[in-house]
Amino acid sequence: MAIIATSAVLALAGLTAAAHQLLEHRVKGKLTHIHTSDTLYNKEKYGHILDYDKHSLILHGQPTLILSGEFHYWRLPDQSRWRPILEQYRSAGLNCIRIYFHWGFHSSKQGEYDFSGNRDINYLLDLCEEIGLYVLAAPGPYICAETQAGGFPIWLAGMREIRLRHMKTNFWKEYDPEFMKYCVEYFEHILPILAKHQITNGHGGCVLGLQIENESFQHVFHYPIGLHDDMRVLAKTARDCGMTVPLFTNDGFEEGSFVVKDDPKKKKKDFGVDLYGFDKYVVFTPNSEPTSWVVGRDPSYLQEWDPSTVVSELEKMEKKVRSFGHANKRTPIFIPELQGGWFNHYGIKYTYDAIYRFYGDDYTRLMLDTVFSQGCTMLNFYMFYGGTNWGTIGDPDVYTSYDYRACIRENGLMSGRLRNLRKGLLFLQSFSNIVVRTDAVTSSKLQTARSSLNKTISLQRRSQISTGKYGPVELTFMRNFSPKKVDCFDLFALSESGNTVVRLSCYLAYKASFIALGNYTTVNPDIHLILSATPIHIRAYSGIEKKKEVWIATLAEFGATEMAFRGDLALTSLGGQHVGAAGIKLRSSADDKDVKVVTIPEGAKHAHVVLSSAVDGASKPELHIIFLNQATLSTLYCYYDNRHSEESARASQPKIVTWGSYNAYYNPHTNILTADSTLSQSELHVLMFGQDATLPLKNETIYGPGLAHQIFPLKADGTATSLSLHSQHTQWVEQNCQGIALNDWEIRRTDFGRLPWQDCPRKSKGSKWFKNVQLDYHFTSGHVLYRGTFTTRERVKEGSSSQPTKPREIWLKFNMRHRITAFVNGVSIGSHMVYSRTLLSPGAKVGHDPISFGGHQFLIPKKALEATVNQKTEGGYRVQAHEIILVIDSVGLSRMPFVLDDVRNPRGLLSATVQGKSVVKGSETWQVTGVDVRTLDMAYSSTGFPDEHEQSGWTPTKNNVGPCIIPELEGVTWWRTRFTGPPGALTHSGATVPGAQSTTAHVPLCLRIEGEFSAMIILNNVLIGRYFGSDSPQHDFYMMDGLVHKAGSGYSNELKLMIYGSTVSAAADGGDAASDNKIRIRLLPWIVEDAQGVLNQWSGNTQFDAEEDFAKEVQAGPFWTERQAFRLAAPSRED
């Protein structure tokens, strides 16, 4: 029996291997005339501009870090905001963005492409070149991105004969040449635009690489799924369209997809792409688990994320990626999507604010430091600014806000997460020549640092750069995952033999991280840093001959701040604020008398030390260290003059460093420094470095001697104009904190009888199921409307012409996706939603949706039946004709993630019958109407109501209160009003601003809605949001700055709401806004925690209507800033 069993196992294994081999053969395809070698990057021709090795990209001969953030221009309906948001990316320390180019956004109708206005990607790339941001271009054709159909045009999704992404069914692809024909057409329209902006053109272009497809796995857990022919055709088309930069992929996770083989000319059936990329999403919120049941759960009970998840997901990343072999041994570790947050869903009771708290302020910085500990030098944070799913561009996974709890919140606020991340990015940029080429110290026995607290050192790497006689610079990756959650501990520097050289005090908050610099020799070879137990953020050089190296470092929140040096050193200058009686010290190590420790006592607000050689110190360069506290460092900004061109290859050298303002941005083309500040900020500190510094060197400053340092007053320069404007801005915000007046409302009703109805066909005669007309008719933006009719016949009481002898129950039974509000004879009878975050459930947001399930029914109340105006009595029977109106809002086409074929899951009305003994058999009819998105300028811009642009029928109302309570109205009603915007639009940094006057204010507005009803929100003729009552967690809607006309512009703003619901009733102003049957609408500035940055948190989390004591505790208030511009010098000739 054992022999038989063994034989059976071997036979099964053989069959499995044979099946796997057949699958491998199938996915490798037939278009083998297109070889990997045909599409490889031409290093011989372009390598002097762009090259790469196992460590990094090499731009103009200089190894370069790629520090990128995702940017979705199509999630900003106001093009005027592209520049300020991208300038925030640059201010945050990034040097690159990745852009998903959205096929459907540019093509509403087959064969037509629009690259104008808000879709002008040529202008977008021009902006990136001007601002100094590289671009990783990801044109798909598939982009995922939580957008309808994954970015495919609706007209293409409507072609049922086409296999989108070649998907024949879930988990199975078959190559479709017709699908590829349309993909090639799209590439031929968009790629020539991108090609004009390539760095390889040699004219300062910004595009570094082109991503082919998106998360197109070659294998999923060893199962062959990715089609080589798909990648072949896309890559070949890219080259044919003039793309000469490297091509890259992004695996959904590390699966080794489409790696270039060592000898691609011999491996013709295997297709590979120049650079292998992979995505890393590590910690997920509980609401994103497919089997989670968290609806109704208090967000304060979200379980804290487990640090072991980060360890298991990231600690072996470098080893795994290199294990794929072939080209992966010779190319940089590249993460096109590194988790920068997470999205939220319908049906959840908590908002992005709770998700922000769940991850904490340090999570994105933690991701950065951890992947750098694994040798990554190319990364892109997804998202860095999420934006808005305005119109209906989002898919079923997401609602209107795409805040993503990203570094920049949806309303533009630069969060505490950004500020912590920026400190890490500034370190990487300052020491880029060191961190860009490193090797892991693979054994803990070889590490030269040890901690007294377990799980606070994740790894150590050694640079291939040596700055002095002591060997390679060392980077110790500090990360506090201590089970004890202790934040103060000791850090030991060790000799090569493992003996303790020095013991340093170290502070690191739980779940926080930083990279500790060690074994580094300064510009003065006598000053050698053994180890810094506190983060260093900026390295700069002062003076023409670099006579001084300047660092900016962190003061520990608790305990002493310490750095250890080797050498015969002298402390030539020291000082600070609140340094205490103990003062700043330069002490000798108890373990090695040749080691000196700089110690700053706890409690200092800022401090500085200047170190020099004890012998002949005056003739040798100095090390000048400025220590700033966490609150000050949260405002730290640095401009690196690292714009690469064919003429030069500059090292990362800060030119301008500032702190003290909410945000700062330097424009090298105009030499204008702009600073945005809050009410609590009064001074902007500016340091300048380099030969062209326009601020004079000073013999003494509060941060030590010999610095080009100046303090500028913020918000008011003393002139009458400046003071008056500041007073006006402040007064406006104070007056409108409770709500901007919304007066003179007008109203109109949708007349369903006048809409263009057409028959709604059943799947077969007598079937209760309808055909999927929503997609066939391209009614994919917003609502689909259905009109049903039926007749009832009831015997009436003797002597009565209208009262039935025995009223019968009548039911409307239906199945639909996703949200329905039903009216019978104009009377609302109920609302319902079929939507699920769980796989294989009715209304599943992704994957298979079992449409046979999810049915529901409404009992049609007597009130609705009696509301008919069409009835007669004949032969003792009352005959009534009834009208049903079904308003169904689809939350979008699914996006086909990974290997799922769900884009054509049915939407709208799936089935409907009217049942009851008094219903006349055969009297039921159904019609449908909506908006064919192929007729629109933008396919995601419609409410779905054919009368949405109707200008007649508006009548005034008497509702003239500020925070507006809108009374009950049956059916679907449209409301509109006009309001005056806040003061002053932001001027961009390219403007010529004379003097230093605070002439502009930035006051982002929020439309806050409460109540159980549905609404479509239209601002100045742009559909900006969808309100779903308790079916969505969103009650606060961002009124995009670029859409709001500001006070003094000569234009007022139109706010229009389409409103309907089943439980709406009238309410008096000042009633209980939490009650389900009231509609409350307020327009006001965003009220957020720590609005002025006093607590150094900058979460951006909202606190509308907070209790007074709690509001004071969290420093809640309106978020707004004022902008000031400083011209530092005339524009330099090179710019």
UniProtKB/TrEMBL annotation:
Pfam families in the cross-refs: Glyco_hydro_35 (PF01301)
Recorded superkingdom: Eukaryota
GO molecular function: hydrolase activity, hydrolyzing O-glycosyl compounds
Any one of the GO BP annotations: carbohydrate metabolic process
InterPro entries: GH, Gly_Hdrlase_35_cat, Glycoside_Hdrlase_35
Record's signal peptide: 1-18
Keyword line: Signal
Annotated Glycoside hydrolase 35 catalytic domain residues: 56-423
Family indicated by similarity: Belongs to the glycosyl hydrolase 35 family.
UniProt-recorded name of the protein: Glycoside hydrolase 35 catalytic domain-containing protein
Organism, scientific name: Linnemannia exigua
UniProt lineage: Eukaryota, Fungi, Fungi incertae sedis, Mucoromycota, Mortierellomycotina
